[in-house]
Amino acid sequence: MAQRFEEAKKRIFGDVYVCRKCNATNRTEDPESSSCRKCGYSNLRPKNAEFAG
Ligand SMILES: [Zn+2]
Questions:
Q1: Which residue of 18, 21, 45, 49 is surrounded by the most CB atoms within 10 Å?
Q2: Architecture of domain 2-52 in CATH?
Q3: Residue ranges of domains in the chain
Q4: What is the CA(7)–ligand 1 centre distance, in A?
Q5: Distance CA 17, CA 15 (A)
Q6: What is the model's pLDDT at position 25?
Q7: Mean pLDDT of all residues belonging to the chain
Q8: Residue 44, Cβ neighbours under 10 Å: how many?
Q9: What span, in angstroms and rounded, lies between the C-alpha atoms of 24 and 29?
Q10: pLDDT tens digit string along 11-40?
Q11: What phi and psi values does residue 30 have, to the nearest 5 degrees?
Q12: CA of 3 to the centre of ligand 1 (A)
């Protein structure tokens, strides 16, 4: 059951990262080598971290 929830989360929030500087959402599969599409800041956090608390 937990697995199913993880998959749902992944489907909804997978590959979505939020810029730590301007909070713009960025869709990328490779956050480590990507930067914010808005401000160019390279420090992105996964959006699903909001769920984890
Ligand atoms: Zn930004």
A1: 18
A2: Single Sheet (2.20)
A3: 2-52
A4: 27
A5: 6
A6: 94
A7: 83
A8: 21
A9: 16
A10: 766 788 999 999 999 998 888 899 999 999
A11: -135, 75
A12: 32
Sheet with 25-27, side-by-side order of all strands = 25-27, 16-19, 44-46
Task: State in Å: Cα 25 to ligand 1 middle.
Answer: 8
Q: Which residue has the tokens 């080598």?
A: 33
d(CA 44, CA 19): 5
7 pLDDT band (50/70/90 cuts)? Answer: confident
The pLDDT of residue 43 is 95
Distance 37 CA to ligand 1 centre (A): 7
Give yes or no for a contact between 46 and 27, defined as CB atoms under 8 angstroms apart: no
Question: How far is ligand 1, taken at its centre, from the CA of residue 20, in Å?
Answer: 7
